[in-house]
Amino acid sequence: QHTKIDITALPLRFQDDFQMLEPAVPIIAASTKILPLLPELVGMEQPADYLLLALNHDELRGGGGFITAIGTATINSLIDINFEMQDSYQVDNSSIAYPLPPQPMQDYMLAGIWVPRDGNWSADFPTSATAVQSLFELSTNQKTNGVVAFDQTVVQKYLDVMGPINVDPSQELWVNSENVLEYMYESWGQASESENWWSNRKDFVGILGKAMLQNLINTRDFKKLISLMKVSRDLVQTGHLMVYFNAPALQSLLVEMGLDSSVQYQSGDMLYWVDSNIGFNKVDAVILRKMIYEVDMTDLDHPKAHLTMEYEHPIPVEIPCVHEATYGKEIAYTNMFQRCYWDYWRVYTAPSTQLMKANVQFIPGDFLLSGNDWRIKLDLESDLPGTGMVGGLQVISTNSTSKIDLYFDLSPEILTYQSGIIGYQLTIHKQFGLKQIPINFVLKLPYEYQFISMPEETKLNSESVEIAFPLIRNSAIFEFTFTRN
Questions:
Q1: pTM value?
Q2: Cβ pair 128, 51 in contact under 8 A
Q3: What does the alpha-carbon distance between residue 395 and residue 344 come to, in Å, rounded to a whole number?
Q4: Cα distance between residue 309 and residue 307, in whole Å
């Protein structure tokens, strides 16, 4: 009922505050369900341990970015928080037997064990979260109550609200949203000539995290807290902040609020493209992508689709494509942008969608760790229940472009029929960690049919409709209805 309130009737000093509450309304509305769960959530009855995953979106994986650092936050009575972060490699435990990793990691990265830092392979976040939890417990014998995963975008957006943070009072080193990435890059490469560089190169994650947490605990600014709440919700909805709870009641609440970061097929047509950087580098920081999806409904009994993914590697240098884990002679974070892009790609579809043809590149064994040629052997068995999938490999050299073309037969069952009106719905998901992906969608109808309804942003052509937009949120749903003339 808050929408019925005339804000202009309020005193001027309250109008801004009231408007700032708008993003918190869904949470306030759900407060009757949250409050009974609060003691368990914030450690009022016993300490609550949460697994923290610092993701690097410069090296994409299915569940967001590569897990560069892992830590825990132990919450005791709401405000007593013990926060620890460490390099994800340091969690490995050589004394235990890890399970085998997903097959593509075995085939293309020659990985023989599945360690926590590689646990977020699944493109469904709750699945990734539980996998990392299990591997972390196996490594440390420590159970956790949930998972919070975040990437660099979260840090930048939080600093936008919180303002500058002093990460080193002895040096008066202040970090803000504009220089935080530069701080991360420089901190990673500092003391690269020292013997302990490998062990200490990610110390800045814990230092920055503790400084930000202390600033948050100390704040008494109501407007700032409301702004952080809004930013957090936006970050979840754009795939940069993900949360998972072990407690079914808490996780169900996330699902109810649309904040669970899960990917499941519901109905109609679906597309979910996922890249996994398997090249031991940070090339996703520079790779440019574009998706083109053309659906041909001219034969309603046999609809077809053509999906094109275009890639550009814009770094204007010529670098040999040698598949190896190395930091080069001069260790600097940005040097890892100047590498070829080894990508295990997956596209998830409606379960009834059938691949008919694929135009993808042959990859010679000289480009791969295994030394074996990749002869366009596509993976067609989905690792997400209830979906179809096509998966494969590509290598993109610097200063070049690449294109993957997939041709599908769509099932007529994705259409709905009611009183002579036909409905088509398309759901497109964006990969976690990607800031955006430009999409161009074209839908073509039979000559004797006309559209009844379509999204506002649709451009109507003589024989088809077209939508061009950057997908920023986790997903977008487009609905069309049409009928015979």
A1: 0.91
A2: no
A3: 9
A4: 7
